[in-house]
């Protein structure tokens, strides 16, 4: 690695410690040419497997760019986008997998985006989930309304309306999905 000050190719490690969350190692280095110090961060890369089968490294900036399009004209700041991307990365790292499919990245975006801005969420979901017509939007909006009602503390939704989830049907069976997004509240329209 080049020294960021003088581009010299040799440096020595003067300090090395694991970050608080244990996901990376921070090394303090000193350039053997100019003597200045800089920090490197060593972390595992996560490969994203695209639908075409091509893999590329997970990149937070790609999340920001993708979501920014859906947020045009909405009261969403660059800070909001950066925090959303960070949350997505944390969700994905928590899966503990070295490789992840692109659609799982999309899934991890939906929940935080829904909290951030419902209009942007609908735009993103409509592209990501290939909405095909008014019916898909209506369905998604119904789910949003239901969730908002639940959040505002109304308990008027009869239990019968709740979708019979796989959990209810197969309670006896063991969960077989290898990498579930546990801890992420997934929208029911999935
Ligand atoms: Zn240097």
From TrEMBL:
Gene: nrdR
Function: Negatively regulates transcription of bacterial ribonucleotide reductase nrd genes and operons by binding to NrdR-boxes.
GO biological process, one term: negative regulation of DNA-templated transcription
GO molecular-function terms, A-Z: ATP binding; DNA binding; zinc ion binding
Database matches in NCBIfam families: transcriptional regulator NrdR (TIGR00244)
Short name of any one Pfam family annotated for the protein: Zn_ribbon_NrdR
Organism, scientific name: Kocuria turfanensis
Source taxon at top rank: Bacteria
Start-end of unnamed zinc fingers: 3-34
Name of the protein: Transcriptional repressor NrdR
PANTHER family: TRANSCRIPTIONAL REPRESSOR NRDR
Cofactor(s) required for function per UniProt: Zn(2+)
Region spans: Disordered: 152-190
Domain ATP-cone, chain residue ranges per copy: 46-136
